[in-house]
Amino acid sequence: MFRNLLTRLFNDDPHPRPLASPDAEVAIAALLVRVARADDIYDQAERQRIDRILARRRGLTLEEAAERRAAAEMIEAEAPDTVRFTREVKERIALEDRVDVIGSMWETAYADSKRAADEETLIRLVAGLLGVPDRDSALARQKVLQDLGISED
Predict the structure, then answer these.
(1) What are the tens digits of pLDDT across the range 42-80?
(2) pTM of the full structure
(3) How many domains in the chain?
(4) Which end of the chain is more exposed for a tag (fewer CB within 10 A), N or C?
(5) Is 129 exposed, middle or buried (0-12, 13-18, 19+ CB in 10 A)?
(6) CATH at 129
(7) Is 153 a member of any domain?
(8) 91-128 as b/e, with b when 16 or more CB fall inside 10 Å?
(9) How far is CA 103 from the centre of its chain?
C-alpha cells in the first residue's frame, strides 16, 4: 500500500496533490521516526510512543499503528535529506495539521523523558520547513512536557 509513497512524493509534478489520508499519516510517521533516530538511539519506548501517537491521530488500533510505523521506518530510511522530504510533506499536508505534527514530534523526542540536542535541533528545523512559527512550536513543546509530567530543567 505504501511502497510507492516516495515515488508519489518525489515525482517532480509541478502541481503536487494532497496525499490521501493513509499516505499522509505514513509521511508524518516517517518524520516521527526521523526525530526518534536523530540521536542514534531508536528504542522500544520511542517505537511504542510513535504507535500511540499514530493510533490517537486517526483512531487506529495499536496493531494498525505499528504496521504504519513499520512502513514509515522503511520510507524514512530511503527518504532523501530532511529538507527535501519535509518540503514535499508540507505541500501535501493541510496547514492546520502541521502544528499537531510538531507536537507529535516533541512527544516522540521526550519518549525517554530526556532532552537530546539532536532531536530538538531536528524538530526546530522541521517546524521552520513546515511553516510552523517558533512560538507555536514552543507552545506545543510546553504542552507535551506538561502532559507527560516532565519539568524543564
Answers:
(1) 999 999 999 999 999 889 999 999 999 999 999 898 887
(2) 0.85
(3) 1
(4) C
(5) middle
(6) 1.10.3680.10
(7) no
(8) ebbeeeebbebbbbbbbbbbbbeeebeebbebbbebbe
(9) 9
